[in-house]
TrEMBL record:
Transmembrane regions: 6-22
Name assigned to this protein: Sec-independent protein translocase protein TatA
BP terms from Gene Ontology: protein transport by the Tat complex
Entry keyword annotation includes Transport: yes
Binding partners and assembly: The Tat system comprises two distinct complexes: a TatABC complex, containing multiple copies of TatA, TatB and TatC subunits, and a separate TatA complex, containing only TatA subunits. Substrates initially bind to the TatABC complex, which probably triggers association of the separate TatA complex to form the active translocon.
Primary role: Part of the twin-arginine translocation (Tat) system that transports large folded proteins containing a characteristic twin-arginine motif in their signal peptide across membranes. TatA could form the protein-conducting channel of the Tat system.
Keywords: Cell membrane, Membrane, Protein transport, Translocation, Transmembrane, Transmembrane helix, Transport
Family to which the UniProt record says this protein belongs: Belongs to the TatA/E family.
Membrane topology of this protein: Single-pass membrane protein
Gene3D superfamilies: 1.20.5.3310
GO MF annotation list: protein transmembrane transporter activity
Length: 70
C-alpha cells in the first residue's frame, strides 16, 4: 500500500466539510493562527529575556561580593 492519491484526500476533505461545515472550519483555522502567533511571540520574548538578565547582573555586581563578611 502506497500513499493516498489526490482523490482520497479530496473525498476526506469533502466529508470533513460536510460534517463540520465551512463556518466551523474557518473558526478553527483562525484559532490555530492566533495560537501559533502567540506561541511565536512567547518564544521571542523568552529568547530576549536571558540577555536582559545578564545585563542586570553586570550592573549589580557578583553575588560573591554580597556574601563576604565585613
Amino acid at each position: 500500500m502506497g500513499s493516498f492519491s489526490i482523490w482520497h484526500w479530496l473525498v476526506v476533505l469533502a466529508i470533513v466539510v460536510l460534517v463540520f461545515g465551512t463556518k466551523r472550519l474557518k473558526n478553527v483555522g483562525q484559532d490555530m493562527g492566533q495560537a501559533i502567533k502567540g506561541f511565536r511571540q512567547g518564544v521571542s520574548d523568552d529568547v530576549a529575556l536571558p540577555g536582559r538578565l545578564r545585563d542586570d547582573t553586570r550592573e549589580r555586581g557578583s553575588h560573591d561580593d554580597e556574601r563576604t563578611p565585613r
